[in-house]
Write a structure and sequence with these properties.
about 350 residues, alpha+beta, five-stranded mixed β-sheet, four-stranded antiparallel β-sheet, about 15% strand
């Protein structure tokens, strides 16, 4: 029986090929991306699968061909044989295209990650403009120290990695770290911004996000060393701040959660995005054992004008319903985009200025 590979279908459909050396990359999703520059559909050549985290469409080689051509899935094999013939020739082309794939480490255990990230952050400082940015959001100096925010390092990444190794910290499987061509460990070089620890139910650092300076789109992104030698990809970890109580707030983004908690004392859960729920069910199951009973969602008010976000929000509510949680939604003055903005600007600064 003929065996086809993802590269066969990609070439046949005229889709962009992978950047050199990569086995996983993104292209425009035909279902939810409405502009050529938007690329949410991930194609994984190693596993011969695709998935869009935005709209949820996913599948294998035959599903991808069917998605783009409209050919029923049960007729795809016949169509591929007609267009490609036997797979021997394309198979040789595949080996040439994706030879020597970059090897990545799986994510290491939480204790090792936490220890390594804590040691890393202890060696970094927070720039004054970043400190002022956080203060302007409503955080105090004590909050900033407690949360562990730092400015991204712009030089000396290899020296920092060498220090961490000499102190006995584990770098393999910690997102952000990877080996150079010479085999030395180093840390990913990112745009300047604020490093944000993303913590679990026990306060341990699972991973880091960056709030990048001077960018309008994708302001927040994960620290990840995917597609680097011995690197490691970040997962969509859920962030928790505050003691577990019967009621918790659910919002988007760890920095937003930290600010809300600092201003109100409420327990806050943060997902990376309303359409990124892969870790949420596991987190809620853990928190239920600690006494969590009810969820109050508090996503940005512009959700009502974005149908992609609305669809993802309905998926979230379905998850909460299936898990038998009580749930409701916080609403506020729509002039303030996020609940953190509303609490700080209206409830604190505005009222205290009177």
């Amino acid at each position: 029986m003929e065996i086809f590979h993802m590269m066969d279908v990609i070439s046949l459909l005229g889709l962009p090929g992978p950047p050199q050396g990569r086995s996983s990359y993104y292209v425009q999703c035909p279902c939810c991306d409405d502009a050529p520059r938007k690329r949410h559909l991930n194609i994984n050549l190693k596993k011969d699968v695709f998935r869009c985290p935005r709209c949820g469409i996913s599948g294998g080689i035959f599903d991808l061909y069917s998605l783009y051509t409209g050919v029923p899935r049960d007729k795809v094999r016949k169509a591929l044989v007609q267009n490609l013939g036997t797979p021997e020739k394309p198979d040789r082309e595949i080996k040439k295209s994706v030879s020597n794939p970059i090897v990545e480490y799986p994510v290491t255990d939480i204790e090792s990650r936490h220890a390594t990230y804590c040691a890393l952050l202890a060696k970094l400082s927070l720039a004054q403009d970043h400190r002022q940015n956080l203060i302007n959001r409503g955080l105090s100096d004590d909050d900033i120290i407690r949360l562990g925010y730092k400015t991204t390092p712009v030089v000396g990444m290899s020296a920092i990695a060498k220090q961490l190794q000499s102190e006995g910290h584990y770098l393999a499987g910690v997102p952000g770290f990877y080996r150079t061509e010479k085999g030395n460990w180093t840390f990913i070089q990112e745009k300047r911004g604020i490093l944000i620890p993303v913590r679990d139910i026990d306060g341990r650092i699972q991973g880091l996000q960056i709030r990048r300076d001077d960018v309008q789109k994708r302001k927040f992104r994960w620290v990840s060393s995917t597609d680097k030698k011995d690197g490691c990809r970040a997962e969509s970890w859920t962030h928790i701040v505050g003691q577990i109580r019967p009621i918790a707030l659910l919002t988007e983004g760890p920095m937003k959660a930290d600010v809300i908690h600092a201003l109100t004392g409420l327990t806050v859960i943060a997902v990376p995005g309303v359409n990124t729920l892969t870790q949420l069910e596991k987190t809620l199951t853990q928190m239920r054992k600690e006494g969590l009973c009810e969820i109050k969602t508090a996503f940005d008010m512009d959700m009502s004008t974005n149908h992609h976000v609305q669809n993802a929000y309905m998926n979230l509510l379905s998850l909460l319903d299936e898990m038998n949680f009580k749930f409701g939604t916080y609403v506020w003055d729509p002039r303030y985009k996020g609940l953190d903005d509303y609490i700080w600007e209206y409830c604190f600064r505005r009222r205290h200025s009177k």
